[in-house]
Design goal:
single chain, ten-stranded mixed β-sheet, Peroxisomal Thiolase, Chain A, domain 1
C-alpha cells in the first residue's frame, strides 16, 4: 500500500527567545539567546530558559488555576498552529483531529509543589489540591488541548524522554497515513523549569550548566561546556495529508519524508554513537535520500561532555563525505527544552527553505577537538548553496534516539 504524503501546514510555538516562528527565527539569525537567571526553590539562582507567551490569549484565569503549565503551553501552541495553517476550527469535524504531544516528564512539577504547600500546614491533606490527579496524569498536556479546543479525536502524550518532540511529530504522521485522523497536531512541550528535582538531578550528575553570564551557559561542543541548561517550551505542528492540503489551497511549509526511532539498549544515561548513526541512516533510507542530499543536520547536542562527543562521532560516520551538509545547534540559544526540544529545534530550521540561511551555533569559543565537525556553522548565519532537506536529531535518556527528515515541498 502506498502511504499518503504528509505535509506541514502550520506551526505554533513558544520558546525562551520567541513566541512565534517569525520572532524565534529572527533571534536565531541575530544570535540572541533566551537564557536568563531564575530563582528555583532550594537551588537559588540558576540559568534557565523561560517562555514569555501570554497564557490569557487563549485561556481564562480559572482554567490556568485548574490546569498545568505544560497544558497551557500546549494550548497556546495548538491554537497558534491551527491559526497559522489557515484552518477554521469551527468548520472541522473535531472527531477526526488527533493530538499527539511528546513530553519528557509530567506531573512531578505539580506533586512537588503540592508537597511543598502542605508542608506549611503539617502535611494536612485537607490542603492538598483536588486538581492534583488530573494535573499529573501523563496524558495531561494533550488532554488539556482536547478539553479546551473541544477536539474529540485521539489525544495523548508520547513519553520519549528528550526525543519526545520528534516522536510526537512522527506519531502524528503515522496516524494520518493510517487514516485514523484527517488532521493532526504533533510535537512536544515541557514545563521542566518549574521543578526543583530536575535541576537537582542534573547537578548531582555534574551535568547542570552554569556560567556567570546566563546567556553563555549553554555551550554545546565547547571545550569548557559544563552541562545542560534547563528550559521550558513548546512547539506543535499542523499536519495534513497532501491531497487534503492541496484541496484547500494550503500553504505547505515542508513534507515529512523520513523518520526513525531506535534504542541504544546499553545504558540509562550514556549515549551510543553507533545506534545514533543507525537511526539517522534508517531515516535516510525511508526518505530515499543519500547523506549528501541533506543540507542541514540539526544536532541534539546538550552541552554535556560525553553526549556531544558521541553525537559528533555519529554525525561524522553518516556525513563524513558530505561537504555541502551544514550542522548547527539550537540549544546554544534556548537551552534544553526537554520534551519540546526536537519539535522546537526543527522549527527553527524550517524557514531555511525560504531564506536559504543556516542559523549558527553560538557560545562556541573553544571547539572541543572531539566535537570537530567540518561543516559546523558557528557564530554567524551561513548562506547555503541550497536548502532542500533537513535532518533533525533528538535523543533521550534510557537510550531512545529519533531522527526526522523534512523536505522542501515539490509536486
Amino acid at each position: 500500500m502506498e502511504l499518503s504524503r504528509i505535509v506541514i501546514t502550520g506551526i505554533g510555538l513558544t520558546s525562551p527567545n520567541g513566541d512565534s516562528l517569525a520572532e524565534y527565527r529572527r533571534n536565531l539569525l541575530d544570535g540572541i539567546s533566551g537564557i536568563e537567571w531564575i530563582d528555583r526553590r532550594y537551588m537559588g539562582r540558576v540559568p534557565a530558559g523561560v517562555c514569555h507567551f501570554d497564557p490569557l490569549k487563549y485561556q481564562k484565569k480559572k482554567a490556568l488555576r485548574i490546569g498545568t503549565r505544560a497544558g497551557s503551553i500546549a494550548i497556546y501552541c495548538a491554537r497558534e498552529a491551527i491559526a497559522d495553517s489557515g484552518l477554521d476550527l469551527e468548520a472541522l469535524d473535531r472527531s477526526r483531529i488527533g493530538i499527539y504531544v511528546g513530553t519528557t516528564e509530567h506531573g512531578n512539577v505539580e506533586t512537588e509543589n503540592e508537597i511543598h504547600n502542605i508542608s506549611q500546614f503539617g502535611f494536612d491533606t485537607r490542603y492538598w489540591s483536588h486538581h492534583h490527579n488530573p494535573r499529573t496524569v501523563a496524558n495531561n498536556p494533550a488532554g488539556e488541548v482536547s478539553v479546551t479546543l473541544k477536539i474529540t479525536g485521539p489525544a495523548y502524550t508520547i513519553g520519549a524522554a528528550c526525543a519526545a518532540g520528534n516522536c510526537g511529530l512522527i506519531q502524528a504522521t503515522q496516524m494520518l497515513q493510517l487514516g485514523e485522523v484527517d488532521l493532526a497536531l504533533g510535537g512536544g512541550v515541557s514545563e521542566s523549569i518549574h521543578t526543583f528535582g530536575i535541576f537537582a538531578g542534573f547537578k548531582s550528575q555534574g551535568a547542570l550548566g552554569m556560567h556567570e553570564d546566563p546567556t553563555k551557559a549553554s555551550r554545546p561542543f565547547d571545550r569548557d561546556r559544563n552541562g545542560i541548561v534547563v528550559s521550558e517550551g513548546g512547539c506543535l505542528y499542523t499536519l495534513e495529508r497532501l491531497e487534503d492540503a492541496k484541496a484547500r489551497g494550503a500553504r505547505i511549509m515542508g513534507e515529512v519524508v523520513g523518520h526513525h526511532i531506535n534504542s541504544d539498549s546499553t545504558d540509562y544515561v550514556l549515549p551510543n554513537a553507533e545506534r545514533q548513526a543507525e537511526c539517522m541512516e534508517a531515516a535516510l533510507k525511508r526518505a530515499g535520500l543519500q547523506p549528501g542530499e541533506i543540507d542541514i543536520v540539526s544536532s541534539h547536542a546538550t552541552a554535556t561532555p560525553q553526549g556531544d562527543i558521541h553525537e559528533c562521532e555519529a554525525i561524522r560516520r553518516v556525513f563524513s563525505d558530505c561537504p555541502d551538509t551544514s550542522v548547527n545547534n539550537t540549544k546554544s540559544f534556548i537551552g534544553h527544552t526537554m520534551g519540546a526540544a526536537g519539535a522546537l529545534e526543527l522549527a527553527g530550521n524550517l524557514p531555511a527553505f525560504e531564506d536559504g540561511l543556516v542559523h549558527p551555533t553560538i557560545n562556541l569559543e573553544n571547539l572541543d577537538p572531539e566535537c570537530n565537525l567540518p561543516n559546523l556553522v558557528v557564530g554567524r548565519p551561513k548562506a547555503a548553496k541550497r536548502v532542500d532537506a533537513i535532518l533533525n536529531n533528538s535523543f533521550g535518556m534510557l537510550g531512545i534516539n529519533s531522527a526526522v527528515i523534512i523536505k522542501r515541498f515539490s509536486d
